[in-house]
Amino acid sequence: MSITKREAKTILTSLSAGVVPRTGLRHISVGRLPEVAALKSDLDHNREGGATVRFVIGRFGSGKSFLLQLMRTYALESKFVVADADFSPERRLFGSGDEAIATYRELMKNLSTQTRPDGNALPTIIERWISGIQTGVATESGLDHGSPEFVSQVKSRILSTLNDMQELIHGFDFGSVLAAYYQGYAENNEELKSSALRWMRGEYGTKTEAYAALKIRTIIDSDNFYDYLKVFAIFFRKIGYSGFTVCLDEAAYLYTITNSVSRKNNYEAILSIINDCLQGKAAHIGFIFGGTPEFLEDQRRGLFSYEALRSRLASNRFLGEGLQDFTGPVIKLSSLTTEEIFVLLQKIREIHQSQAAAPVKMTDQDIHAYMEETLRRMGAREFTTPRDLVREFVNLSNLLDQYPEKTWQEIVMGLPAPKEDQPQDVSISNDEDPLDRFSDFKVN
After folding, report:
1. Domain map (residue ranges) of the chain
2. Which residues are paired to 291 by β-bridges?
3. Cα–chain center distance at 177
4. Distance in angstroms (rounded) separating the CA atoms of residues 277 and 266
5. What Cα–Cα distance (Å) separates residue 416 from each residue in 253, 381, 408, 411, 413?
């Protein structure tokens, strides 16, 4: 396995804590082929000028965040600009305070490109665009960078790009701020550049403050930040990127909002996104939400409690057992198969051995036996939500690395038996023995 020690350490540290690593996902990706294919087709549609919205639905630990991060990686590799954020009590799509603009600021903080995958890519994007224009003018005209004519031609090309955006809602103000950034860039005025970036990141709290710095009478706030995301998408496409992908995870937090009016306002914001994407009112942008089944289907507090959303997100009524429609806006994550989990643990073993002081002695037969033992002790829950199984396997590998004289059987068998009242997964019937899932699975 071709993996750096830094990637291996990041992956193992994240998995041992039960969170999804932001790098190296290709090394631990298994299954989910139809889901990935559907989301990749969205990227193609966005590149061609369309807009898409998807809801990745699954129980906690089922792989929602992993799939969103995997698509983030694919989007970056396809020259998309990507922004991601997690909903929380402080970050929503609508709120009486700063909850909505806090979501926008988080997206801007995490704005990434292939060359800047760790976020804060906005200055790099703008300066790359300006530098590209300067290079083009210098190549075509042969003018010196410091000459007034060179600066005039560069500014003319920049304004030409910005003028095309004036027909968009808020496009004029957006273009004016970019022009101010270029002015600061040309004059080496770091304060003006910083003010323009603050405006684009939604960091001005009042219009008075923004006007004093930029002579712009508007700001990005909780009421209009979604419109500016659409403007950014057009801008990114015009300057050479494929489009804009926005990943919003932990949408279950919206479901837990206790105030019904606030919850409804957040759902109306989601409805606006869905309508714009499905009706062609947005371009070159894709939204991916990650949420739980309750967030989607609960008739009292979930998205289905809002009739307009229920009618747009309801499942295809022709779906039978084993069928799933990947063309609709909702993608429901199915359980990983036993074989897929086995392959996943194999990959984690290889990653661990690539950075361990001494190779951990876990053969394929040992992994199979470990899976059987874990399933016997803990029930079927881990095999439908692999987060806990993966975390425990990484922790077990860490102990085997620290205590090479011990075997995995000695460590696992020494654990106390699970409580008898531990709930079993509802997807396994009362008459089904979880170990039956291994009946057709053999290790060569």
Report:
1. 32-113+241-332, 122-214, 338-438
2. 57
3. 28
4. 17
5. 35, 18, 15, 11, 8
Using CA atoms, how far apart are residues 324 and 330, in angstroms rounded to an integer? 10
Instruction: Quote the CA–CA distance of 51 and 373 in Å, as a whole number.
Output: 47
CA 78 to chain centre: 15
Rounded to 5 degrees, φ, ψ at 263 are: -65, -40
Tokens 């090309």, residue located: 157
Phi, psi of 77 (to 5 degrees): -65, -25
Handedness of CA 375, 378, 380, 386 (dihedral sign): negative
Per-residue pLDDT of the chain (444 residues; tens, 9 = 90+): 577 778 888 888 888 887 878 777 778 777 778 888 999 999 999 999 999 999 999 887 777 888 898 899 999 999 999 999 999 999 999 988 889 999 999 999 999 999 999 899 999 999 999 888 888 888 887 777 667 788 788 888 888 887 877 778 888 889 889 988 988 888 889 999 999 999 999 999 899 999 999 999 999 999 999 999 999 999 999 999 999 999 999 899 998 998 999 999 999 999 999 999 989 899 999 999 999 899 998 889 999 998 999 988 887 677 666 677 778 899 988 777 778 888 888 888 888 877 766 666 778 888 888 887 777 766 554 444 677 778 888 888 888 888 877 877 777 776 554 444 444 443 334 444 444 555 555 665
Among 122, 125, 101, 100, smallest CA distance to 110 is for 122
Query: 32-113+241-332: which CATH topology?
Result: Rossmann fold (3.40.50)
Q: If phi over 0 gives left and psi between -120 and 50 gives alpha, with beta otherwise, what is residue 31?
A: left
